[in-house]
Design goal:
Number of domains: 2
Helix content: 10-25%
Number of helices: 5
Shape: globular
Radius of gyration: 19 Å
Order of helices and strands: EEHHEEHEEEEEEHEEEHEEEE
Oligomer: single chain
CATH superfamily of the largest domain: Diaminopimelate Epimerase, Chain A, domain 1
Strand order of the largest sheet: 8-9-10-11-12-14-15-16
Strand content: 35-45%
Largest sheet: 8 strands, mixed, barrel
CATH architecture of the largest domain: Roll
Length: about 325
Amino acid sequence: MISTISTVEMHTGGEPLRIIVDGVPVPQGRTLLEKRAFLRDHADHFRRFLMFEPRGHKDMYGALLVPADHPDADLAVIFMHNEGYSTMCGHAVIALGRYALDYGLVVKETEETAVNIQCPCGLVKAVVQTHDGITGAVRFESVPAFAYKLGQYVTTRAYGPVELDIGYGGAFYAVLDAASLGLDVKRSATRDLAAAATIISAAVKEQVKVTHPEEAELGFLYGTILTDGRFGNEGGPSANICVFADEQIDRSPTGSGVTARMAIAAARKQAAPGETCQFESVTGVIFTGKIITQLRVEPYNAVTVEVGGQAYYTGSAEFTWEDGDPLAGGFLLR
């Protein structure tokens, strides 16, 4: 039985964020990764209850705030979605920046306020803009990001051999031009793009070993990003669609995906430090990306990336479990 769970509802670029305010106990564990593992292994019914139908849907996204164990963090977060628990989420960080100020987790400054958010991938430093006391746009500096594979080939039944890049931006993504699959991110049906991206993700997971050099729990492919073949500094934004987890479609440009794309661009000498690039989602919303620092995450050349966007409130809710409801625990239609 689950008692009442209270949430605040937001979206960034159309991508939902269900912030869990009350009703879910703090998971056991000393570190954030331990808390994430406990929730996954021993209390996953809370995720299914909130993400799945009838309270959610296949593309719902959630955030559970927990005590931070990083000394510089203002708050810590566990991300959740239709398949499980992600390591990084840029659209959620943008929304949580506003939430942290508006709900008093961090004291609001006059024009800009720093909000340090501990994510499973590490500390992410956000800055929230304020105008006349109202919070607005948010930008954040990513954890170190890097190009993991450039010009990697995978074999697929549907498309034959396919060339792609794999980048890490707090999570690992396969990135490729949709045209190489006979598709167009602006004109092709979303369901066709999602199906193609799912085929690519499956091929990469089967054929390429993905590991993080510093933390084993971060070493898995999170999704595939199909692009328009352009980059976001070529006279306009680069359109892309990100399909992650269990065929979940990101309505936003994908903050961690923008970070991964910028890391790949840095490795390919397509973007210079300080240069602002733009990325457009399936809803037409724009995120910006800018390389801030260059460093090493052995054995890779790495960068940190500043991603900018805007989140909005959509409401609040109280979700309950009624005795005798056979679907109270949640379900998904495929």
